[in-house]
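hiii, so i know i said id send this last week but things got crazy w the move. better late than never?? heres the sequnce for the chain we talked about at the cafe, plus the structure i predicted for it. fair warning i was half asleep when i ran it
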Amino acid sequence: MLEINQKTIEKAILISLNTHEYSREIVEEHLDELELLSQTAGAETAFKIIQDRSRVDSAFYIGKGKAEEIAQLVELNNIDLVIFDDDLNPIQARNLENLINRKIVDRSGLILDIFASHAKTKEAKTQVELAQLQYMLPRLTRAWTHLSKQYGGIGTKGPGETQIETDRRMIRTRISHLKGKLEKIEAQRLTIVAHRKDFIKASLVGYTNAGKSTLLNLLTDSEVLVENKLFATLDSTTRSLPLDNKQTLLLSDTVGFIRKLPHHLVASFKSTLNEVREADIILHVIDVSHPFFEDHIAVVDQTLKELGAERKTNVKVFNKVDALQDKERMDYILRKYPGSIFISAARGINIGRLKEKLQKITEETHREQTAELAFEDSKIIAKIHAMAEVLSTEYDDEKVLIKFRANNAISNKIKRMIDEKTNPEN
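okay and structure toks below
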């Protein structure tokens, strides 16, 4: 993985382009979010600039005149880097870098830097490196324009590969290798998933920094890393959550979503995001105190749609209710999002209501069944009592009839236990 080591805090100018597709207020909020991203990456914001244009400039993104103003600003204020709130194509990035003579970073590059610094496990590091290389490949023209052609060995006729061609080939080879590693990781994950098929699975999703990890820790008595910064969690974490009806949920935390998330990053994190695809229940955690919480909801819903998980049972959990100043917002939310729940994961407010909601959902998937067993099948009988809600037990001369209620996953597991006892050769 390409390590990002910043020993000193760098001063940055943040730039957003307003083509009037969004209101000024939304553009300013996007720029505020970019500031949070830059702080997470270790940069200090010196200036925030919004450039109004009818369309994107193909050569300099913000226009050559504005780029020249930025060049003067960085010289006068000793600025280290300039960060743009959208992705730049290779030509725009090269032109801006040549004119401004400072590091030019776009939104995807900034997010990748953050992911690189936060990746801890082998899987996360592999996924981030793959995304970095896929991001870098089309931008090598900017990195290597100063290099001349390399010539072949003795007796070679004509020019050999250019340095950029060599690097492209090396990067493509590395990308192929990393994809192979992720395929092996995916195979291992599928093996783990196979052992979880007898449990109901729930997945925590939400905009980054909405409080998913805090909620996971509270519900499952875990100690997952919690930090008040964007993308503190990259790896999916799964913990068990016992419910009062003898059911156990497997609850998974996932990487936070964000607007304009690089598509190659989503592709690289496919194996991690499979936790969302495999879930029976989606717990969509929302920071209700954020002024643009509905924008965040739209981003997450769109990402779920892209993952093919939009039709799953979805519970909207509005977190940080203790920080909500506008109480009328709660009435509005209840009207627009019926069935949603207000909580504070940090203070433990209304967590019992959330557990009751989860229990109700699991009970709705339950069905009543009757198992016919012999007296000597005491181990299976004991397991049914432990795994399911036993409604009645009847005894006759040779058999035991147990009527129980369980969800589909538990019912299937009980059926397999009985089948293995009845037909051991199978």
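btw Residues 121-135+148-192 form one domain. thought thatd interest u
miss u guys!!
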